[in-house]
Design goal:
This protein is an all-alpha fold. The chain has a domain at 50-97. It is built from 3 helices and no strands. Residues 109-121 have a biased composition (Basic and acidic residues).
Length: 121
Amino acid sequence: MRFLHIVALTIVFCSFADALKIKKSKKEPTYIQVPPEVEGGSPRYVKAPKVLTEYDKCKMECRRQRDAVNRKDNIAALREQLAALEAEEAAAAKAAEGSVPGEQPDNLQAKDVHILLNREA
């Protein structure tokens, strides 16, 4: 008796499984834009351009304006640093001209002194 119940349930489950089987729908093919072939190269896949919303456009414009201001400040700071370094170089060159050839400048570091001592020896 049990055997008949098991066989009947198995048949019922198999019939329901076939009826409820989900059929996969065919997807529409996706086309990718490929630039013309270049000799010696493999084809490259190009991403579709992103459509910008008004928010994204505004965000990009604000970023451009902020970067322009930062760029101007950075350029001004770099020019000041360059002017200071050029003035320092000019002062060092002027000090080097006025010094005696055998005399050592005061701003030598330990490695420079070591090199000078090795040359004299």
